[in-house]
Amino acid sequence: MAPIFLCFLLFLLPTPNTATQDFCVGDLTAPDTPSGYPCKKVSAVTVDDFVFSGLGVPGNTSNLIKAAVTPAFVSTFPGVNGLGISAARIDIAPDGVVPLHTHPGGSELLVVLEGCIYAGFISTANDVYTQSLGPGDAMLFPQGLLHFQINSGDTAAVAIASFSSPAPGLQITAFALFANSLPSPLVEKVTFLDDDEVKKLKAVLGGSG
């Protein structure tokens, strides 16, 4: 009986878990990869890697869209590397808009803190889902789908967005079409817009060609 009892006690005793990795703080000095940054050595990790203070700071909305996004993505918040989460603060001034855009790497959950936001997304079946949101309201935008947020009130709007990826990515549709060197004839062909309209939008957004 003694050997069996001894084995039982040994089974109950805590043992070091060498198979579990608690975290993988991103080593931002190394190249980013599709699977994320390589892990920083644990000996170099500090509490600062797990703390981000930027979400309490209003973004600068003095720009064309009158909006600002302050990302707590892996590139600014290395502790989220490999954890499948990140966040961002969104500030939208009156008459401001976060134009149609996508996050190819993750879904978004938007929570309104201040003001009024009219938001929506378009499914791959071209169905449209829109809603007016006030403080405390939340809306989900599935991964990869076109979506937008508009300040629909008279005061500044503030929201916090959380993402299902440490690097959800961001591509604003209008900028992708008109803020680069994609030749105007090609843009006209794929958008059905006339030459004058394409040239006008390129001029506004800083594109060429």
TrEMBL record:
<dbReference type="InterPro" id="IPR006045">
    <property type="entry name" value="Cupin_1"/>
</dbReference>
<keyword id="KW-0052">Apoplast</keyword>
<keyword id="KW-0479">Metal-binding</keyword>
<feature type="binding site">
    <location>
        <position position="108"/>
    </location>
    <ligand>
        <name>Mn(2+)</name>
    </ligand>
</feature>
<feature type="domain" description="Cupin type-1">
    <location>
        <begin position="53"/>
        <end position="199"/>
    </location>
</feature>
<dbReference type="InterPro" id="IPR019780">
    <property type="entry name" value="Germin_Mn-BS"/>
</dbReference>
<dbReference type="GO" id="GO:0048046">
    <property type="term" value="C:apoplast"/>
</dbReference>
<comment type="similarity">
    <text>Belongs to the germin family.</text>
</comment>
<protein>
    <recommendedName>
        <fullName>Germin-like protein</fullName>
    </recommendedName>
</protein>
<feature type="binding site">
    <location>
        <position position="103"/>
    </location>
    <ligand>
        <name>oxalate</name>
    </ligand>
</feature>
<feature type="disulfide bond">
    <location>
        <begin position="24"/>
        <end position="39"/>
    </location>
</feature>
<keyword id="KW-0732">Signal</keyword>
<comment type="function">
    <text>May play a role in plant defense. Probably has no oxalate oxidase activity even if the active site is conserved.</text>
</comment>
<keyword id="KW-1015">Disulfide bond</keyword>
<feature type="binding site">
    <location>
        <position position="103"/>
    </location>
    <ligand>
        <name>Mn(2+)</name>
    </ligand>
</feature>
<feature type="signal peptide">
    <location>
        <begin position="1"/>
        <end position="19"/>
    </location>
</feature>
<dbReference type="InterPro" id="IPR001929">
    <property type="entry name" value="Germin"/>
</dbReference>
<dbReference type="GO" id="GO:0030145">
    <property type="term" value="F:manganese ion binding"/>
</dbReference>
<dbReference type="Pfam" id="PF00190">
    <property type="entry name" value="Cupin_1"/>
</dbReference>
<feature type="binding site">
    <location>
        <position position="147"/>
    </location>
    <ligand>
        <name>Mn(2+)</name>
    </ligand>
</feature>
<feature type="binding site">
    <location>
        <position position="101"/>
    </location>
    <ligand>
        <name>Mn(2+)</name>
    </ligand>
</feature>
<keyword id="KW-0964">Secreted</keyword>
<feature type="binding site">
    <location>
        <position position="108"/>
    </location>
    <ligand>
        <name>oxalate</name>
    </ligand>
</feature>
<comment type="subunit">
    <text>Oligomer (believed to be a pentamer but probably hexamer).</text>
</comment>
<keyword id="KW-0464">Manganese</keyword>
<dbReference type="InterPro" id="IPR011051">
    <property type="entry name" value="RmlC_Cupin_sf"/>
</dbReference>
<dbReference type="InterPro" id="IPR014710">
    <property type="entry name" value="RmlC-like_jellyroll"/>
</dbReference>
